[in-house]
Automatic annotation (TrEMBL):
<dbReference type="InterPro" id="IPR036565">
    <property type="entry name" value="Mur-like_cat_sf"/>
</dbReference>
<comment type="function">
    <text>Cell wall formation. Catalyzes the addition of glutamate to the nucleotide precursor UDP-N-acetylmuramoyl-L-alanine (UMA).</text>
</comment>
<dbReference type="Pfam" id="PF21377">
    <property type="entry name" value="MurD_N"/>
</dbReference>
<dbReference type="GO" id="GO:0005737">
    <property type="term" value="C:cytoplasm"/>
</dbReference>
<keyword id="KW-0132">Cell division</keyword>
<keyword id="KW-0131">Cell cycle</keyword>
<dbReference type="Pfam" id="PF08245">
    <property type="entry name" value="Mur_ligase_M"/>
</dbReference>
<feature type="domain" description="Mur ligase C-terminal">
    <location>
        <begin position="307"/>
        <end position="420"/>
    </location>
</feature>
<dbReference type="GO" id="GO:0005524">
    <property type="term" value="F:ATP binding"/>
</dbReference>
<dbReference type="Pfam" id="PF02875">
    <property type="entry name" value="Mur_ligase_C"/>
</dbReference>
<dbReference type="GO" id="GO:0008360">
    <property type="term" value="P:regulation of cell shape"/>
</dbReference>
<dbReference type="GO" id="GO:0008764">
    <property type="term" value="F:UDP-N-acetylmuramoylalanine-D-glutamate ligase activity"/>
</dbReference>
<keyword id="KW-0963">Cytoplasm</keyword>
<dbReference type="InterPro" id="IPR004101">
    <property type="entry name" value="Mur_ligase_C"/>
</dbReference>
<keyword id="KW-0961">Cell wall biogenesis/degradation</keyword>
<dbReference type="InterPro" id="IPR005762">
    <property type="entry name" value="MurD"/>
</dbReference>
<keyword id="KW-0547">Nucleotide-binding</keyword>
């Protein structure tokens, strides 16, 4: 069996290693450059590869192709593979056929990283030998090849779910749905929603689907489509007989006739969206039979996620917050919603078809100045020029942070929450967040 891997990054190299171990004839092809650390791994494992090109005669003879999530279906080589009738799958699909261990799959437009890391933390503290993979850390395929864990928590993007045929998580979590990556779905929101719901497509009556019952898009889809998994909702606004809900003081879960309650002010994470993330993770932990005391302790000592509403420093009584992971409008909505002080907002980057109108009420109420950080800021300037008094354009993180410091007064917050992808000025959102933190530390 010939396995061709498109993309020599984390998921590609992990798939190549697992494929080689399982007896496939493996070839890795990357249209860009492969990083040196991955080249070394491929050489060490005697896996042939190429970079800066796709050689068709070495690719189109594949029995199966694993496509890295970053490569769009519109690319020429992908079109040719499809025309040839060769199966294209995701790393998650490829790796899942080689493990019988249960997986917990977590998706959503926002909150999935936090929920994935929090769920992993709860289960690990509860004594499970559990791996974490997907969009995060070492690739799932690589970990399956190493065979160290007895279960996995996977953060799954819509791109990873696109390439699923038989993959079936025992527990699926959907944190929310809002328009994101529409450029990859022909600007059709329904196609993006369908991609997200592939997470439950292969689930059976023995599996669980945990979801946000306050989310219009999720509730609408569930009312129009039948799923086999047992549905467990969570909500901030309604009291549920089965599932999880919150009032002003507490979160409460009712799962399999077991009740769990915890005071919201004891949660390590702040903000309404994190109450939801905590409810989702707690529901998983209860389904996995983790002790209530362990759940309570773990929710109160969780460290949070880098680049997600991360408090960097307080300088002259101004709080600097790194929310570089906010790559869409909905994520920035959560960030602005959790601000309790006048805010200087650093925003901008590669726009993925953003509609900024839903941010207007929050910007009016909380934002005193906007710093646009992008190659092309015209859409943001136009959207907010009549809403705030001060708007400044910049094309470097150092400038953005220095300008923010000059604009800020005691008691203010400087928030990097870009609502856009980072590829115009930065390598990725992590690079953007690190540059922000460095610039703040150098003030």
């Amino acid at each position: 069996m010939r396995l061709v891997v498109l993309g020599g990054g984390e998921s590609g190299v992990g798939t190549a290693i697992l494929g080689k171990k399982k007896g496939y004839d493996v070839f890795v092809s990357d249209f860009g450059e492969i990083k040196n650390n991955y080249k070394e791994v491929l050489l060490l494992n005697q896996i042939p590869w190429e970079e800066k090109q796709h050689t068709e005669e070495l690719i189109l003879n594949a029995d199966v192709v694993m496509k890295s999530p970053g490569i769009p279906d519109k690319s020429n080589i992908v079109k040719k593979i499809i025309k040839k009738g060769v199966h294209i799958i995701s790393e998650i699909e490829f790796a899942s056929q080689f493990t019988d261990f249960i997986t917990i799959g977590i998706t959503g437009s926002n909150g999935k990283t936090t929920t994935t890391m929090l769920t992993h933390h709860l289960l690990k503290q509860g004594g499970m030998n559990i791996g974490i993979a997907g969009n995060i850390g070492k690739s799932f395929a690589w970990q399956v090849a190493e065979n160290k864990f007895e279960a996995y928590v996977l953060e799954l993007s819509s791109f990873q779910l696109d390439g699923i045929i038989n993959y079936r998580p025992h527990i699926a979590v959907m944190t929310n749905i809002s328009p994101d990556h529409l450029d990859r779905y022909n600007y059709d929101y329904d196609l993006y929603i369908e991609a997200k719901f592939r997470i439950t497509k292969n689930q059976t009556e023995d599996d669980y689907f945990i979801y946000d019952d306050d989310d219009e898009a999720i509730v609408k889809w569930l009312s129009e489509n039948k799923i086999r998994a047992k549905k467990i909702p969570f909500s901030l606004i309604k009291k549920l007989d089965e599932g999880a809900y919150a009032d002003e003081q507490n979160i409460t879960t009712h799962i399999n006739n077991e009740e769990f309650t915890m005071a919201i002010n004891e949660l390590a994470l702040e903000g309404k969206h994190n109450v939801k993330n905590a409810m989702a993770a707690t529901t998983v932990a209860q389904l996995m039979r983790i002790r209530k005391e362990t759940i309570r302790e773990s929710l109160s000592n969780f460290q949070g996620v880098e680049h997600r509403l991360e408090k960097v420093l307080k300088i002259q009584n101004v709080q600097y917050i790194n929310d570089s992971k906010a790559t869409n409008v909905n994520a920035t909505f959560f960030a602005l919603d959790s601000m309790n002080t006048p805010t200087i907002w650093i925003v901008g980057g590669v726009d993925k078809g953003n509609d900024y109108s839903e941010l207007m009420p929050l910007v009016r109420e909380k934002v005193k100045g906007i710093i646009c950080l992008g190659v092309d800021n015209s859409k943001i300037m136009k959207a907010f020029e009549n809403v705030v008094d001060v708007m400044i354009e910049t094309a470097s993180m150092t400038d953005a942070v220095k300008i923010a410091q000059r604009m800020a007064e005691k008691g203010d917050t400087v928030l990097l929450s870009p609502a856009c992808a980072s590829f115009d000025l930065f390598e990725n959102y992590e690079d953007r967040g690190k540059q922000f933190k460095n610039a703040v530390q150098n003030l």
